[in-house]
Design a protein that fits this description.
Length: 215
């Protein structure tokens, strides 16, 4: 009987620990995550949407195909973050180069866990249907984040990373200087990709160039 009670208690504590270590409040403890946390709070996945939904960090950044993979990856990333936050200088880290490895940190199983109806939802929209058709039929080997890197998850992350490297960087919710104009985080969130931010998606880079020409 005592063993059963202990098992239940340990199970409950494990579930609580997993939930507590999976959101932005916990992940934001590390100063090395400051740009990611700031840009997350300005993104639709961070709550800037019409329904108030807020995805947890682990919803996107851990695999959800099975429990074992989830815990193994969570442990590895946790150790890497603690090591980096303790022994490395984030100001000297090549953040933009690391963004090119996004497929190692964002998992399709996480995307499809929330967007489970994506296949049916895009069927009536030809522009959205065609690329997703190839994905669901196995004709495309691209991961979700390869097409959506500059669109979801972290609003204007390139700008936040660039600002983070400055000596006088002030984290959210302080204002940013964009093109010499002081902007609040709310104003910043309305800009597709401010001048000076670095997009890695070719389509987004083209759109950014057109936007810059109009300024």
């Amino acid at each position: 009987m005592g063993g059963c009670v202990l098992g239940v208690v340990l199970s409950v504590l494990t579930v609580q620990a997993v939930e507590w270590t999976g959101d932005d409040k916990f992940c934001g403890i590390c100063h090395i995550m400051t740009p990611e946390l700031n840009s997350y709070h300005l993104d639709r996945h961070g709550g800037k949407n019409g329904v108030g939904f807020q995805a947890a960090c682990v919803d996107c950044h851990l695999p959800h195909n099975n429990v074992m993979n989830y815990f193994i990856r969570k442990t590895i990333l946790g150790i890497e973050d603690v090591y980096g936050n303790t022994f490395k200088d984030p100001k000297k880290f090549d953040w933009e180069a690391n963004r090119k490895r996004a497929t190692e940190y964002v998992f399709d199983s996480g995307c499809l866990r929330c967007h489970a109806n994506l296949k049916d939802a895009t069927s009536s929209n030809m522009k959205a249907f065609l690329p997703h058709r190839d994905y669901f039929n196995g004709l495309s080997q691209k991961k979700c984040v390869e097409c959506h890197l500059d669109e979801v998850g972290h609003k204007n992350l390139g700008l936040h990373l660039k600002e983070y490297l400055k000596e006088n960087y002030k984290p959210y919710p302080n204002a940013f200087l964009v093109g010499g104009k002081k902007m609040s985080p709310e104003e910043l969130a309305t800009i597709p990709n401010p001048k000076g931010a670095k997009a890695t998606n070719p389509k987004q880079r083209s759109e950014d160039a057109k936007l810059d020409q109009r300024r």
